[in-house]
Amino acid sequence: EIVPTRQKGEYVFIQFGHNDRNYNKAERYTDTTAYKEYLRKYINESRAKGAVPVLVSPMNMNAWNGSSVREVFCEGANNYRGAMLNVANELKAPFIDLEKKSVALQKRMGADYCGKFIYLGLEPKEYPNFPDGVSDGTHFQEMGANFMAKFVCEGIYELKSNADMAKL
Q1: Which among 22, 39, 48, 102 counts the fewest CB atoms within 10 Å?
Q2: CB atoms within 10 A of CB 8
Q3: How far is Cα 59 from Cα 19, in angstroms, rounded to an integer?
Q4: CA distances from 64 to 21, 71, 161 (A)
């Protein structure tokens, strides 16, 4: 359930999918049919409380085929971006396409740069919490997190023709 203290005029930014796509982990996997049901539920519960739901597609992971970016949230049965866009259109909910914005960043910066400065890629002994280093294609360095926040702000601005979004 959406937080019971939600009030009229508040905004609920809805973004999930990263942990849902791995069908090898049955306890976490959610197919796109169920994913869409959850999105509808969050939108409808938000609206019932007088809040404005805003869908934000999952940002892309740092996944590459050679020099080409893989759009893992658009692939086959894991097309969570497409599922979210369908629900946004169906329920006329604002949609921020963080997936496409993050892919454009990856294409501009390249795999090596993204792996070191955008996503959590650390050399051994570079950071005390990761003494052996880490290569994490899901979580972000500070720079990557700042880019994602910037892209959400851009998305809000791009939705200014929507009366609810124009208030932001």
Answers
A1: 48
A2: 8
A3: 12
A4: 17, 9, 35
Q: pLDDT-derived band of residue 1, with 50, 70 and 90 as boundaries?
A: low
pLDDT computed for residue 66 by the predictor: 92
Residue keyed to tokens 């509808």 = 40
Q: What is the DSSP string of 16-62?
A: --TTTS-TT-TTT---HHHHHHHHHHHHHHHHHTT-EEEEEPPPPPS
Backbone phi and psi for residue 2, each to the nearest 5 degrees, phi listed first: -65, 145
If one counts every other C-beta atom within 10 angstroms of the C-beta of residue 132, the result is 8
Helix then strand then coil, in percent of the chain rounded to 5, is: 45, 15, 40
Encoded amino acid at 61, one letter? M
Residue 71 has pLDDT above 80, yes or no: yes
Q: Hey, what are 45's tokens?
A: 């519960």
143 touches 118 (CB < 8 A): yes
Structure tokens at 77: 């049965």
Could you tell me the two tokens for 41? Answer: 């539920």
Check: CB of residue 137 under 8 Å from CB of residue 61. Answer: yes
